[in-house]
Structures are given as structure tokens and as C-alpha cells.
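User: Some background: our group keeps a shared notebook of sequences we're curious about, and every so often someone picks one and asks for a predicted structure to add to the entry. Today it's my turn. The entry only has the sequence so far, pasted here. Could you supply the structure so I can complete it?
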Amino acid sequence: MPSPVHNRIIGIDPGYAITGYGIIDKCGNRLTAVDYGVIETKPKMDFPVRLLAINDKIRALIEQYNPELMSVEELFMGNNHTTVIGTAQARGVAVVEAARAGIDVYEFTPGQVKLAITGYGKAEKRQVQLMTKSILSLDDIPKPDDAADALALAICLANSGIQFAQRSVAGYQYGRYGYTKRNDFG
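Assistant: Of course. Here's the predicted structure to add to the notebook entry:
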């Protein structure tokens, strides 16, 4: 009988003040939390130094845990464009570190994560946190919220299977390479 497929997945909930990370192992249908937490930067730090701190910590996590896959939240443009731009830059350093390590990156919207974790794409944050705790057989809800979100992103990829997940692409790439819709990406 063949042994079950084993994957180590890192989930990243990007932010320039707080970036959440969650590392899980998938062995067959079993998911186990390996590590989770946050990378925090101080508001008074120069912005490039904040990005460097996020970069260095993600690099250290990748070197320590050797994940095979990365799951990252797809950004959406809200009313606060300044925050989105900073968050996008923090997301970028995570994606670059994954590329440097040869790790495939997959992205999910918050609705996709909610659907994968709870079965309902408009679930409340607390419902997602409770299901994350249950799925990973944790004693408590992971804290802070950014770490819980990162674990949920990793679970989403583990449960979606990479054949159904969306490879990470920037929105501008859709038209650039002749793609007209998201499913055109291989």
C-alpha cells in the first residue's frame, strides 16, 4: 500500500504592520499545525526596513521549515488605497522569498478561504477561527487573528488541492499574456 502524500504548506496573511504565518503538514487527509505566529514591524521604522524585516523572517521560516507550497491571501482594493499598497508590498516580499526557494505560490480570496474552512463563503471570522482550531486539533483558537488567518489560508490550499487552486498572478498579467479570464492560467 503506497504511503500517503505529505506536503508542508506555509500560509501568509500579508500586512506591513503585522504579517501572519501558519505552517501545516498534510499527510493523507490529516492536517497538523507545525508553527504559527506573526511578524510585527514598528510604525516608526522606515518603510523599506519594515519590508526587510518581513522578508528576513519569511526567509528564516522557509529555511527552518522547508515548505513545499505557499498559500497567500489575494488582495482586493478597498477604500484605503494607502494601506492596500503597503500590504501589497509586504505580500510581494513573501512571494519573492517563495520564488527564491522554488516554492509554488497559490492565492485565495477571503471568500474562498471561508468556503474551504466552513463551507460558507460569507462565514464570520469567529466561525473560521473555530473551524481552524477544530481542523488542526488545537487546544485553543490561534492568536492573534493574523496567525489564525494564515493557518486558514494553509488549510484552504491543503483542502483545495493544487489541481483546483489558483497559481499566484498579478492582475495586470491577465491581458498581458493573452489571458482573458482567471481559468486560463495553468
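Suggested note for the entry: The chain has one domain: 6-171. Helices lie at 47-65, 81-100, 110-118, 125-135, 145-160, 173-176.
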